[in-house]
């Protein structure tokens, strides 16, 4: 089978597509014929050995996929070959076949296309957990989303609107801001322009109730300064490459709560909330009430280009790898 293989840590251009041996399932595992895989910023970091966890070489990168079950190992009574599924996993998605723990499988709701199912996994789970369980958003609240044209950001705009919130989207450049408005943001702010804090306060009539930040860097403090008293700031990642140092006196003076969400561990840390959130999210996806924006699609042979687009923060919404010719 074909797979993208990382033989040495470094930039996306060092990855190569090659023939490798097809995997076999062990106990509690399934082999999935991958139809589509989606690119996430951590995939870039893992390939460069800049992530929180080092993955031993060689390995197949890629953390979310959609496809059909080909084969299962033992202890797979609830799963059958041919079922349409999507999954998230640490690595292994950028290949024609992937080994997936049964516990990581989710049935694709309704007739949702494979590409959309792959694109929804990480981004929509992250955004929904952040809004529903961490920030506990309420109808009418102002939610500011940093990096709002990216994968997690565009999902957060979509979901915040669905949950009844009013959205301020922050991104860079006219094309990204136009996408944010099309996704339902009431206001779209270019965060590369001066005085983001004042512009946020002005358009919300006093400040944001909730900030979701998957970007980090210099925009985090500006967004926190533009919050209302007693608001909630949720840190989700650092796509800018810079972990911000927030002055704690701002937290004290504004009475805000700063919380973090690590989507990989959320199900373990908050199993009841995770199960509730997933059931609600799958319902919304299955009914077509929400859908990821796929800004670019690449064949498996051009996976390095797809990763570069995400690494350079040039992507609009999600970037998908079409592993097969199916949707």
Characterize the structure shown.
The chain is of the alpha/beta class. It folds into two domains: 2-121 and 269-322, Medium-chain alcohol dehydrogenases, catalytic domain (Quinone Oxidoreductase, Chain A, domain 1, Alpha-Beta Complex); 125-266, NAD(P)-binding Rossmann-like Domain (Rossmann fold). Helix content is 32%, strand content 26%. It is built from ten helices and 15 strands. It has helices spanning 41-47, 114-134, 151-162, 174-182, 196-204, 219-225, 248-254, 263-269, 271-286, 303-311, and strands at residues 2-5, 16-19, 29-39, 64-72, 84-88, 97-101, 105-107, 142-146, 166-171, 187-190, 208-213, 227-235, 257-260, 294-299, 318-322. Strands 3, 4, 5, 6, 7, 14 and 15 form a seven-stranded mixed β-sheet that branches. Strand 12, helix 7 (248-254) and strand 13 form a beta-alpha-beta unit. Helix 2 packs across helix 3 (151-162), helix 2 packs across helix 9 and helix 8 packs across helix 9. The longest helix is centred in the middle third of the chain and has 21 residues, at 114-134. The model has no long low-confidence stretch (mean pLDDT 94).
């Amino acid at each position: 089978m074909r797979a993208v293989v990382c033989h040495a840590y470094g930039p996306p251009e060092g990855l190569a597509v090659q023939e490798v041996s097809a995997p076999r399932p062990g106990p509690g595992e399934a082999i999935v014929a991958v139809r589509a895989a989606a690119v996430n910023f951590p995939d870039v970091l893992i390939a460069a050995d800049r992530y929180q966890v080092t993955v031993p070489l060689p390995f197949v990168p890629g953390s979310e996929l959609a496809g059909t079950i080909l084969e299962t190992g033992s202890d797979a009574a609830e799963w059958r070959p041919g079922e349409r599924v999507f999954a998230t996993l640490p690595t292994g998605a950028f290949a024609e076949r992937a080994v997936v723990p049964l516990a990581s499988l989710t049935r694709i709701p309704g007739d949702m296309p494979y590409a959309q199912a792959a694109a929804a996994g990480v981004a929509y789970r992250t955004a929904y957990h952040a809004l529903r369980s961490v920030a506990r958003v309420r109808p009418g609240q102002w939610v500011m989303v940093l990096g709002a044209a990216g994968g997690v950001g565009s999902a957060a705009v979509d979901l915040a609107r669905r949950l009844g919130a009013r959205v301020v989207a922050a991104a860079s450049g006219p094309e990204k801001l136009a996408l944010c408005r099309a996704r339902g943001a009431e206001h779209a702010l270019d965060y590369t322009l001066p005085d983001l804090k004042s512009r946020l306060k002005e358009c919300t009539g006093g400040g944001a109730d909730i900030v979701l930040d998957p970007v980090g860097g210099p925009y985090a403090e500006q967004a926190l300064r533009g919050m209302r008293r007693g608001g909630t700031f949720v840190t989700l990642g650092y796509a800018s490459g810079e972990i911000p140092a927030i002055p704690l006196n701002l937290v004290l003076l504004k009475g805000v709560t700063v919380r973090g969400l690590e989507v990989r561990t959320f199900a373990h840390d908050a199993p009841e909330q995770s199960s509730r959130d997933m059931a609600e999210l799958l319902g919304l996806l299955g009914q077509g009430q929400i859908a990821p924006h796929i800004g670019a699609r690449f064949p498996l042979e051009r996976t390095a280009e797809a990763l570069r687009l995400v690494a350079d923060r040039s992507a609009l919404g999600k970037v998908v790898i079409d592993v097969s010719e199916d949707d």
